[in-house]
Every structure is written in C-alpha cells, then in structure tokens.
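Question (not urgent): is this output format expected?
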Amino acid sequence: MTVGRQIVRTPYVNPYDSRMIPITFEGIVLVPDDQGPDQTVDYIASYLTRYKPRNQANFIPFSEGLGVPQDEGVLITGASYHKNGFNIGGTNYWIADTLNTAYGEIDYLLPFGEGNGGRGPQLRVGANILDQRTVGASMIAGAPYETYQASARFVASYRGLVLEGAVSKTGDEASIQKPFGYSASYAGMLVTNFEQAGVDAFLLSLSYDFARLGLDGVKFKAAFGKGWGIEDPVTNGDFSNQQELDLRFVYEPPRGALQGLRVEVEYIDWTSSTTPCRAMISPSSGQS
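Got this back:
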C-alpha cells in the first residue's frame, strides 16, 4: 500500500512519460507486494484524489481534467491473470457524476516459438476494448453518452526483428476522454491515438535490435499509422483524416564504460487533411 504522490501504471491512468515529465498522481494504491515475472495474478485497488498534468505545476481533481467543476477523484479496481503466454485482465475507473471507463484485454503468445531454446520465431496476438460512459449526474459536456474504442494486434518477432500490425475503431457517439495517461489502443502513436468519434485506424511498425550484428544497445523503430472518419463538429470536433510516421533511434549500452547512458532521437511527421506538422524530439524517456 502506497499513500501520497506517486507514479501509477494502469491502461487508462498512467505516466504518459514520452516527454520526460510524467503525469503523477495523489492518493492511495494497493497492489501485490511481489510483481515479478513469475506473478500469476495481479490486482489493484485504488482511490486517487488528484493528478498533475505534464504541462502544469499543480495537482488538480480528476473531474477538473474533464471540465467538471466539482471536486471528484477516481476509484480504480482491476485484476489480471498471466500464465503460459496467456494474459487476460480488466480494470474499471469510476469518477462520480462524471465518467466511468472500463478496460478489458486478452493476449496470447503462441507456443510455436518455444523450440531452439526459445530463440525461434514468436507470434503474439491480442485484443482490447475501452468502454466509456457518463454516470450519475452526468456533469461532463455532451452528456449523456456512451462510446468505446476497440483494437486488435499481432506482434511477430525473430532474431531481433519485430513486426507489428494493429487496427482500431472508435464508437460514433463520442470521442474517448483520456487526459490521465497514454492511450490503451494498440494503434496509438506518439502524436495521435485516433480516439475521435467514428474513426477507424491502422498501424504498422518494424523495429530491429542490432545486438546480433555486434552493436549492443543500438535499436531502431519505424511506425506508420493512418486514421479516417466522418467530420462531425459535435461528436469529434470536425476530425480530419490523419496519418503519422514515427522514427526512433535508441542507443543504450548494457555494459562497459557507457552503461547507464541512454541517447534517444525521434522524428515525427504528422499530417491531417488540412495541416502538416513535422517535429524532431530528443531526448525522451521512451513511452513505447
């Protein structure tokens, strides 16, 4: 049990630390004492009263982050099960008179890569869904409503090469509200997460660890995603079709005189149907 200001890592409430300064939280959190790789069952029971956005110096109520004037925190309950490459879990987030967000995920590592000492090709498949709806007095703008974002992915890896593909779909009634962390969608990218109402999206990424070529600690990743949907000024703020290209180079030597050093450079090319944008970002703490 941890009481006070702290980092919390869950699918919907998390640090979102891609810009070095993480989102931090204030409250009480109960989790298992042993959270090692052999942990079969995980759980969380928490009530967080406030959070600090990345671009603010003060902690504010969770309801304020959603534009609701009354002072409300978030109640978090969740559990997950992990064994033999199989993972299943769910978490619920309740903010009184404002919003309830429920998250579920199922993920499976296929066993055919277990040969050759576990160094053979591996394939992981998964699906998740985030259900979000107004509750109680429904004081949030646009209430009452209910919406969702569902996504699915595959991850194939072999000899340091990783190929990932993902698709996502957001409900037509409203966009996903997520000021408390990075998107849980598998199609989420560094700039956009395609969470606007009625948006469909896909993502493809390829990464390589150059350790097999003798360059320990050198990694490169390229990802491309695209989202499209109907422009609606009420439900999604006149969303315009978007696409994004992310390039990431990382150097983090695991041993030797430079152990502990991390150099990371990211290049982002984001384009909507009306506005192009390019950015160089360096360094970051590496939200994956």
